[in-house]
Amino acid sequence: MWRTALILIVTIIVIPFLAFRIDTPLTPAQSAILADLLRVYIVAAALCFITSTLTGNYSQVDKLWSIMPVVYAWMICIASGCEGRLLLMAIVVSIWGIRLTYNFARRGGYSIRFWSGTEDYRWPLLRKRSEFSVKWKWMIFNLLFISFYQMGLILLITLPALKSLGARPLSWIDYLIAAIAVLFVIVETVADQQQWAFQREKYRAVNSGKELPEPYSKGFIDSGLWSVVRHPNYSSEQSVWIVFYFFSVSATGLWLNWSVIGAILLVLLFYGSSNFSESVSMTRYPEYKEYAKNTPRFVPIRFKR
What we know:
By secondary structure, the protein is an all-alpha fold.
């Protein structure tokens, strides 16, 4: 995990640096807005680090994952004087954010005591690994990866809005992009609902003390969208932000520009995250290996081996 984290941390420094050097320079207006966004990012990341360190709950970034992109998108939109495209982009991000915030909330992610709430099961498992047996190593991992890397990625995925500032007028292509992005939000909603219903029924059966019936005896969901790919929610999440990038393509006419870095790094993060999640699932559920063998991970295409 250390190796994966270090690679991701290096990429979030190197790739943006190279991208900004190669692409056209930021305009004065873009630079001023980016400076404001960076200030908010640093404060948010620092608060996540401090709060998680003091409370022992390392899901502080998770609480803000669906909120900060909405904040960034509206900051850019308002600073632009609510340009048509940026207003549309902020609305799309808000739809995504409201839905994801609701899903996180119903799983117990938030509490009146803002620092508490359900912690992602992966963090306690990671803390038990030998490489984190020394406390200061986990603290550095929390500082660099959990807090500052992930919060930085949240900022980067919204930067196509900054790239779109002061560009071409809004067109029908933008409405098409918005519709596709919302479609992926809907798919993600369906996937999360299927997972929610499955887990709720599974734990209801577990708490009843009776033997688990099919399909709950497997321990994991493999029906509905989950029979198409192993992580339909992750697939949709990545797709939303890949599609979001194309707003900047419509705005600038450039198929490749520096704001693509957020989407690229998001895909890398989800790949690494799903690797760890699946290693846990294979340990817990004997049938998961066969499921993984026969079902694609993110894209519903089976490659010949």
